[in-house]
Amino acid sequence: MLAAKEKTILTESAPEYWEQACRELMKQDRILKKLIPKYGSGFLVTRGDAFTTLARAIVGQQISVAAAQAVWDRVMIACKKKMHPKNVLSLSTEELRAARLSGRKVEYIRDLADHFDSGRLHANQWKDMDDESVIKELSAIRGIGRWTAEMFLIFNMVRPNILPLDDVGLIKAISLNYFSGEPVSRHEAREVAANWAPWRTVATWYMWRSIDPIPVEY
Asked: Could you tell me if 196 and 29 are in contact, meaning their C-beta atoms sit under 8 angstroms apart?
C-alpha cells in the first residue's frame, strides 16, 4: 500500500458505484456497518495514468509505505518530476539505483517503460476486458504479478470487485477486525470477503483505512 503525498491532480469525485456499495456493505456485513460510518468521508481516488500507477506499484513491492514513498520521491526527481516511459528509459541503471531502487526493481521499471513505449500493451482495450484478462496481460511484464495487477485494477481502473488476497495490509485488517488478531489463512479471508461481493474493492479500501487512516492511493 502507498499513501501519496506529492501534489498531483486526483479524481475529485467518488466512483459512481461508491454510495450504493457502502449502503449494501453496511447491510451485509456487521464489521463494515461500523467501519464505513467511521471513515465515510473518503473514497477511492485515481490518477488515471496507467504507467504511473504500475510504476508506483513496482516501487512499493515488499517495502513499507514510508520507504516506498521516499524511493518514489527520488525516482520522480530523477525523472524531472514527470513520470513518463521515455523519461525512465532515458535514465541509466546507475541513476535509477541512485534513487534507491534495487537492481531488480530497476529491471522491472525499465521493462514496464519499454512495454508502454513500444506499444506492446493493449492499454486502449483494457476498459473492455474482464478483470482476469487484464491481470493476465499485465503479468507478462517483468516484476508484475497478480498483486500488482490487482492494485492497478483497483487504483487505475477502479474496478468494483477486486480482492487482493496477497496484500499484507488486507490480511492484517481482516485478522484484526474479524478474528481478534489471530492469524488468518487465504481461505478464511476469502470466506469473509464472500460477504462483500460484488463490492470487494470498496470493502478492501475500508479494511485498509481501519489500520491506516490515511487513504491509500497509487
From this structure: yes
Selected residue with higher pLDDT from 118 and 6: 118
Residue 9's pLDDT is 39
Q: What is the pTM of this model?
A: 0.82
For residue 178, give the amino acid letter.
Y
From residue 95, how far is each of 68, 86, 116, 146 by CA, in Å?
17, 14, 20, 28
- Of 107, 99, 94, nearest in space to 75 by CA: 99
Q: How many CB atoms lie within 10 A of CB 140?
A: 10
Cα distances from 78 to residues 28, 72, 91, 99, 100, in angstroms, run 47, 10, 8, 7, 11
Instruction: Look up residue 95 and give its three cell numbers.
Output: 541513476
Q: What grid cell was written down for 35?
A: 467501519
Helix count (H) and strand count (E) of the chain? 12, 0
> Residue 117: how many CB atoms within 10 A of its CB?
15
Q: Contact at 8 Å (CB) between 155 and 55? A: no
The one-letter amino acid code at 194 reads: A
* DSSP single-letter state for residue 196: T
The 10s digit of each residue's pLDDT in 182-206 is 999 999 999 999 999 999 999 999 9
Residue 118 neighbours by CB distance under 10 Å: 9
Which of the pair, 63 or 216, is modelled with greater confidence?
A: 63
> CB under 8 Å to 84, separation ≥6 — which residues?
51
